[in-house]
Design goal:
461 residues; alpha/beta; 14 strands; binds nicotinamide-adenine-dinucleotide
């Protein structure tokens, strides 16, 4: 094989990204390392540590051919000439910048491991999402080596989305590669570009300076989240005015300047990235003395929190102001469909608020039950977890839809209605169900940003 690529961090990004890279580049040896042994064992087993449509096939094709998962970080560093760093960069929870700034301790540790164990020059690629100008700090740390080694730093942020990771990686909208405008920086950039050229058309590979690349990733996430918060804020206005958010979104989306994607109202965005990346952007703006810009972006996160709280108020208001001792069936816990990831899922906020109101929760999700159990492990209250939607809804007073899993649309709601307490409620936090049909079956239906379908009279409400 031509060269060895190492990726430090075998998480939601490192695993799928490197699997697709190895699959498309049989002339490269790709090693993915992680300090988490359990995760590496899972990558080497039949049950991968993360669920992504199509990922099993890609991993099976490349694993032990030119794709290897290992905990031996030192051996990997010694062998590779190109190192992708894909470790987690969570929000800092302590000290200066707590609650907003990125915690770069995992990132810095990898830099120190690289210096300590390197025996020849290397290209270090930032795959993690990082604050703009992180590469400067990295360069200083790496160049402090006393072995006279050269390290080129490249920014190559990842734009894949969970749930569609494999298709996003196989046919990306763009691959972004940023480098210093030095001879060595440009040569390193070309070597990273050569890898992607194995399967990505050249016109989709955008090269920029280092800082533009770092900042573009943060801003792309902020812009995506901003669209969701914008449309969610309007969903609240729709409910007050009898406008319908689906119609408003469709009408807006037909404007080619706006575009139709990411205009679906719901209970809000989740996932490990949007909130952390916006807060990081807010922190950076404050740090660089731009408080007005910081306040603008912070509002995106505030609206997201407002939407989840507003949804719980809607449940309470319509269930006679109490859910105490009532069984609530939660349909969906993952932060979005087609993933088992529950990090920052709005389902966590909604479930905790319902538990505070002393509701009994029955949670159903096709892929996320294991994570849901961990997320709610410290909660007191009556919580059960189910693979079977019919068991989940049996004897429940309400169904609360929190994830846009497609299969929820195909369930037998007539059967579900018969098994529930009456009056039976559905709160569709993702606007995915057929509300008129459910109403005809007897449900009281409460979507987001649309009229409600209720059999209850004003006095009963
Ligand atoms: N999850 C996404 O959809 C997504 C998309 C684009 C970008 N990103 C960014 O990519 C980065 C990684 O995200 P993720 O979701 O894969 O995180 P993750 O938590 O799933 O994976 C990170 C992995 O890095 C490992 N790790 C941490 N420090 C290490 C060290 N010093 N040595 C070896 N292993 C180490 C951890 O054990 C963990 O398995 C983050 O910066 C994130 O913002 C994530």
């Amino acid at each position: 094989m031509k060269k060895t690529i190492l990726c430090i961090g075998a998480g939601y990004v490192g695993g799928p990204t490197m699997a697709v890279m190895a699959d498309n580049c049989p002339d490269y040896k790709v090693i993915v390392v992680d300090m988490n042994e359990e995760r590496i064992n899972a990558w080497n087993s039949d049950e991968l540590p993360i669920y992504e449509p199509g990922l099993d096939e890609v991993v099976k094709r490349a694993r032990n051919r030119n794709l290897f998962f290992s905990t031996d970080i030192i051996a990997g560093i010694k062998e590779a000439s190109i190192i992708f760093v894909s470790v987690n960069t969570p929000t800092k929870t302590f000290g200066a910048g707590a609650g907003k700034a990125a915690d770069l301790q995992f990132w810095e540790k990898t830099a120190r491991d690289i210096i300590e164990h390197s025996k020849h020059d290397k290209i270090v690629v930032e795959k993690s999402t990082l604050p703009v100008r992180t590469a400067e700090a990295m360069r200083r740390i790496l160049q402090s080596n006393t072995k006279n080694l050269n390290f080129d730093i490249i920014s190559n942020p990842e734009f894949m989305a969970e749930g569609t990771a494999v298709t996003d990686l196989q046919t990306p909208d763009r691959v972004l590669i940023g480098a210093l405008e030095t001879v060595s920086g440009q040569q390193a950039m070309q070597r990273i570009k050569d890898i992607y050229l194995h399967w990505v058309p050249e016109e989709k590979i955008k090269t920029t300076n280092l800082w533009s690349s770092e900042l573009s990733k943060l801003v792309s996430n902020a812009m995506l989240a901003q669209r969701i918060s914008s449309v969610n804020s309007i969903s609240a206005l729709c409910e007050k005015t009898d406008a319908n958010i689906l119609e408003v979104s469709a009408a807006m989306g037909m404007d080619s300047r706006i575009g139709a994607k990411f205009l679906r109202a719901g209970i809000g965005f989740g996932g490990s990235c949007f909130k952390k990346d916006i807060l990081n952007l807010v922190y950076l703006c404050e740090f660089y003395g731009l408080p007005e810009v910081a306040a603008y972006w912070e509002q995106v996160v505030k609206i997201n929190e407002y939407q989840a709280t507003r949804f719980v108020s809607k449940i309470l208001n319509n269930m006679f102001n109490s859910v105490a001792s009532k069984k609530i069936a939660i349909f969906g816990f993952a932060f979005k469909a087609d993933t088992g990831d529950t990090r920052e899922s709005p389902a966590i906020t909604v479930s905790k608020m319902l538990l505070e109101e002393r509701a009994t929760l029955a949670i159903h999700d096709p892929e996320a039950l294991k994570n849901a159990k961990l997320d709610l492990a410290d909660e007191t209250g009556d919580i059960s977890y189910h693979c079977d939607p019919y068991k989940t809804a049996e004897g429940a007073h309400a169904i609360v839809v929190l994830t846009d899993w497609k299969q929820f649309q195909g369930y037998d709601y007539e059967r579900i209605f018969k098994s529930m307490e009456k009056p039976a409620f559905i709160f569709d936090g993702r606007n995915i169900l057929d509300h008129k049909k459910l109403f005809k079956l007897g449900f009281n239906v409460f979507p987001l940003g649309q009229r409600e379908y209720s059999h209850l009279t004003e006095i009963e409400k």
